[in-house]
Predict the 3D structure of the following.
Amino acid sequence: MTVLFWLLSRLPLRVLQALGGMFGWLGAQVPGRYSRLLRDNLQRALPQATPAIRNAAARSAGRMMFEMPYFWMRSDPLAGLRIDSGDLFTTMDASLAQGRGLILLTPHLGCFEVLPPIIATRHPLVAMYKPPHKPALRDWIERMRTRPNVTMAPAEARGVRMVVKQLKRGGVAGILPDQTPTGGEGAWAPFFGRPAYTMTLVHKLHQLTGAPIVLICAERLAHGEGYRVHTMPVPTPLPDDPSAANTVLNATLEQMVRQLPTQYLWGYNRYKHPDGAPPPPATESTAGTAA
């Protein structure tokens, strides 16, 4: 795996994105679970979505996968890329000035792998990730994604302690907010009109530290030219009720996704019901599905 990733990482970014776009489109044409999720999730969230938008989203998902070797294996992955950071650092500096740390939420939108090295040019980052079950693969991923000023924290008790410590000393922590947590670690909240089991970790961290929360994503520019960073502060303080808090988080994420609908990972099973989670609240859409 390391050799394959190294070989791929030697290719120019525009070539990797072209390959990823091709494989992403092909994968969406094959009948199966992934193509069904991509089509259904996109169509339910954005009924006006055309086949062209769906195909663009499929190509974007492929590019997301093929970008990984580039950012994991290169010692300086930002070299030669056009990076428009927008108001990222202005927003970060203003948030950090409050002295309570900063929670950055990086959803599956655009290229989230480019964000840690961008942030690390100015601030140390502890980034949480969901570790695979195989220890060898877990160690490999953690090693590949760790770089100067970037520390990886597994989404388990040890990693949570790392994130809390980072926030309490006024630092920056990064979390993927749209991964479905295991049962008992989330609360149902609407996401594009459907109940989505959403992690309560962000809410707990905010309550514990008072850290401000900012959504960020890196829009993928055409022809492998680079990325444009978008930021969107989450209204805080969050409500005390976990479901109400997650409703605020998901609504803010919705706003960001609507700005770049073709670069969201619609093929992810965002609406699954994990074992151990309570039943989702009934809505018009779920009631209609059940009927």
Summary: The first strand starts at residue 82 and ends at 84. The chain has one domain: 2-267. Residues 284-291 have pLDDT under 50 and may be disordered.
